[in-house]
Amino acid sequence: MEKPASHPKIATPRTGLLIINLGTPEAPTYGAVRKYLAEFLGDPRVIETPRALWLPILYGPILTFRPARSAKAYAKVWNREKNESPLTTITRSQAEKLAEKYGDNVLVDWAYTYGTPSLKEKLQAMKEAGCNRIVLFALFPQYSATSTAAAYDKAFKALAELRWQPAVRTVPAYYDNADYIAALASSVQTDLDQLSWKPVKLLASYHSIPKAYWDKGDPYPCHCMKTSRLLSEKLGLNSGYLETSFQSRVGPAEWVGPYTDNKVEELVESGVTKLAVLSPAFASDCLESLEEINMELRETFLKAGGTHFHFIPCLNDSDVGMTMLKSVADQELQGWV
Ligand SMILES: C=CC1=C(C)c2cc3[nH]c(cc4nc(cc5[nH]c(cc1n2)c(C)c5CCC(=O)O)C(CCC(=O)O)=C4C)c(C)c3C=C
Ligand SMILES: [Fe+2]
Ligand SMILES: [Fe+2]
């Protein structure tokens, strides 16, 4: 048999853990947001409309008008000190804290489905660092084709370009994982204990998806409902104290409801003046929690007649959050470390 001209380099074998978040623009500017939205909204996992119909709309009105509006929103929450999006600050910190927890046993890194650092560059770097086994961990607690599958699809596309692929495992959604529910419950309890007032209601607001995707079998809304139910049970709340709603809808089509802004107005009408809101669909605070909930929704609630509003931050890089993320990752690392 003919031998190759030279053998491929063989690094010391290692196991890698790549945490994946959605992605974010590189600057709160029209150009940077346009670039980010073009990649994100160009993904058929996110917008399923046939390309021939969707692309003229995307590259016409959407990418002409939306970047300005979104850039303004990003500017309100931008991390000025580090000149980066809050999603980047938090996701990086989550990866650093996981790396500390695993020490030399696992090479931990992070990447985005859309934008930079990309899955392609990080998978390539991990392979070059000797990772012959890689666990991909999409941080979305509830599964959706639009978030979880989109992330893993992008990773597999990058792997398809490698001649010598690592062995790969993917972390499943953890919407009902006991450690996730316990971490959420602990963060809610800690926050509520620090308030000088008691909320009349607790609202769990999840990012929505188009209703048609649910009708076609995306389990995301069911996962959200289950997270809410388990959280309510874990906290020992009276039935109906924790309500669930969906935010961040885009465009005129029907999305899964009830819509958070309508829900909040209804709550005020029914006499709820003190409200606490959490965002269990995000592992890390982002534009949708920091601006849409903590700024816009707060204003909606107060304008409608509410008196007290509190936003409970996402688990982020908190101690309970990091212990939970490690426990979820550990399940897929079994036998590899
Ligand atoms: C239009 C289709 C969209 C679907 C479907 C969708 C699903 C979805 N998104 C997240 C998580 C995040 N989305 C974020 C921002 C964001 N989402 C959309 C659209 C869809 N999302 C847009 C256009 C944007 C950008 C902001 C805007 O212009 O309004 C973010 C925040 C990112 C950040 O930079 O901070 C997150 C996180 C999930 C979990 C999900 C499905 C379950
Ligand atoms: Fe989104
Ligand atoms: Fe939004």
From TrEMBL:
Coiled coil (UniProt feature): none
Name of protein: Ferrochelatase
Record-stated family: Belongs to the ferrochelatase family.
Pfam families reported in the protein's UniProt record: Ferrochelatase (PF00762)
Biological role: Catalyzes the ferrous insertion into protoporphyrin IX.
Domain of life: Bacteria
Gene Ontology terms: biological process: heme biosynthetic process
Keyword line: Cytoplasm, Heme biosynthesis, Iron, Lyase, Metal-binding, Porphyrin biosynthesis
EC numbers on record: 4.98.1.1
Major site of localization recorded for this protein: cytoplasm
Listed transmembrane segments: none
Pathway listed: Porphyrin-containing compound metabolism; protoheme biosynthesis; protoheme from protoporphyrin-IX: step 1/1
MF annotations from Gene Ontology: ferrochelatase activity; metal ion binding
Gene Ontology CC terms: cytoplasm
CDD domains (UniProt xref): Ferrochelatase_C, Ferrochelatase_N
Subcellular location: Cytoplasm
Swiss-Prot/TrEMBL catalytic activity: Fe-coproporphyrin III + 2 H(+) = coproporphyrin III + Fe(2+); heme b + 2 H(+) = protoporphyrin IX + Fe(2+)
Gene source species: Kordiimonas sediminis
Signal peptide from the UniProt entry: none
Group of enzyme by EC: lyase
Entry annotated with the keyword Hydrolase: no
Residue sites binding Fe(2+) per the record: 207, 288
